[in-house]
Design brief:
Layout: E1 2-8, E2 17-20, E3 22-23, E4 32-34, E5 40-42, E6 44-49, H1 55-70, E7 95-103, E8 106-114, E9 119-127, E10 131-136, E11 141-142, H2 150-158, H3 166-170, H4 178-190, E12 191-194, H5 201-210, H6 215-224, E13 229-238, H7 241-249, E14 260-268, E15 272-275, H8 281-298, E16 302-305, H9 314-327, E17 332-336, E18 354-359, E19 365-369, H10 384-389
Parallel strand pairs: 6-17, 6-18, 12-16, 16-17
Antiparallel strand pairs: 1-2, 1-7, 3-5, 4-5, 7-8, 8-9, 9-10, 10-11, 13-14, 14-15, 18-19
Helix pairs in contact: 6-8
């Protein structure tokens, strides 16, 4: 579970911003997950903002950490693929990330400072039960609860180049450290970024084909969404000659035998069969999303979804969110949206979990929560929809004259 995420100097974010899923309440309902200390954590966080305001970059910052740790530069001379804020002197400054999360019942705090050339600082703490150091990269110090031989410490640092995290270096060794494994598993398996251009079809279909999943649950979700789908069938098909040639051309000849093409057919009214591509965009999108939802309900995933409402009717979007809130135990859904209608659904979200991004005069992104506003402006009985629509919360386009005079 994500608790807090702070970062600065990344893409459109210049100054440090904070995305928090901590809830200042002891109220128990379907909006919250409770940790072992009975602290409430939101299941969902929603981010609004005008186009080009940087809301997607909040998700991309988490994705960057995931990718950088799991796919570190191979050579010590390789440049770190990070994009700092470009409109001022910020590119000369270091980028900073701090993420606090729960994994396997333990709270972790990971801090990373870096630039395009090297890691400047890296620390990992855990709360077991009190805050304690796991490691400090700069001083090459390990906490007292991390038992390592001198040779193991040397091996770990020898496998960590200046442009790699210590977590990345750990992946190159045969050393076993539970805290490292927990953190790497959180970034690798739990964090799940999904964008409008993400082709989930191959992934979810292969998961359904290869893993022990009750597909009747997926069918039930599709039926309950009024798609008139009675069943679906996944078939493997040999890849065609053109795709084989493509794999060979890009140096993937070894994959030619193992890769299968996935085809999906949906059965309507128990007798009509349609190919996946013949279904509406909404049907295709919902099939992919509810399969990811099913995986999140089976396991503790954090779905980072950009423009969740894409191709979905507003009622279908609400239905999807209600399924998640009602059934999720440990998983979270953090998403961006332009769907103002969700602000009418007061039972779905709390003020603290609703965020906005606004583009400042220097082109940087400001991130703020609905709970940051004075209670004289925002009250529980107010219509947040109307307040936002009327521009009183900011985070909306400042459009100008539409007369072209042609």
């Amino acid at each position: 579970m994500l608790i807090n995420f702070n970062f600065s100097n990344f893409k459109s974010i210049k100054n440090e911003v904070n995305l928090s899923c901590e809830a200042s309440t002891d109220e128990k309902d379907e909006n919250f997950i409770f940790d072992d200390d009975h602290n409430a954590i939101f299941k969902t966080a929603i981010i609004y903002g005008q186009n080009a305001s940087g809301k997607t970059n909040i998700l991309k910052a988490l994705e960057f950490l995931k990718h950088f740790i799991l796919n570190a530069p191979l050579k010590k001379t390789d440049t770190i693929n990070i994009t700092p804020f470009l409109f001022t002197d910020a590119p000369k400054e270091d980028s900073f990330f701090e993420v606090e999360f729960l994994q396997n019942g333990i709270k972790y705090l990971y801090l990373l400072t870096l630039n395009k050339k090297n890691i400047v600082d890296e620390k990992l703490y855990f709360y077991n039960p009190n805050k304690a150091l796991v490691y400090d990269r700069v001083s090459q110090k390990f906490g007292s609860k991390i038992k390592l031989k001198k040779s193991q410490k040397e091996s770990l640092f020898n496998n960590t180049t200046q442009n790699n995290t210590l977590l990345s270096g750990y992946l190159k060794t045969n050393i076993e450290i539970k805290a490292f494994d927990d953190v790497i598993d959180w970034f690798k398996r739990v964090l799940t970024p999904i964008y409008p251009h993400t082709d989930l079809l191959g992934f979810v279909s292969n998961v359904l084909k290869t893993e022990d999943i009750d597909t009747s649950v997926i069918v039930g979700l599709l039926k309950n969404a009024d798609f008139a789908i009675d069943n679906f069938e996944i078939k493997e098909k040999e890849i065609d000659k053109e795709f084989k040639k493509f794999l060979i051309d890009i140096g993937k000849a070894d994959d030619v035998r193992s890769i299968k093409k996935i085809e999906i057919f949906f059965t309507h009214y128990q007798r009509y069969k349609l190919e996946f591509q013949s279904e509406s965009m909404g049907t295709q999108r919902f099939y992919q999303l509810v399969t990811m939802l099913y995986l999140a309900l089976k396991d503790d995933l954090i779905l980072l979804v950009d423009e969740l409402e894409s191709s979905l009717h507003p009622d279908l979007l609400k239905h999807f969110l209600l399924i998640f809130l009602t059934n999720a135990k440990e998983s979270q859904l953090i998403f961006t949206t332009h769907s103002r209608e969700l602000l009418l659904e007061k039972e779905l979200f709390r003020f603290e979990s609703i965020y906005f991004t606004e583009k400042k005069d220097d082109g940087s992104t400001e991130l703020f929560s609905l709970s940051d506003f004075d209670s004289k402006i925002i009250r529980k009985e107010n219509s947040i929809f109307n307040i936002y629509k009327n521009g009183k919360l900011g985070a909306t386009p400042n459009t100008k004259n539409y007369f072209l005079g042609l």
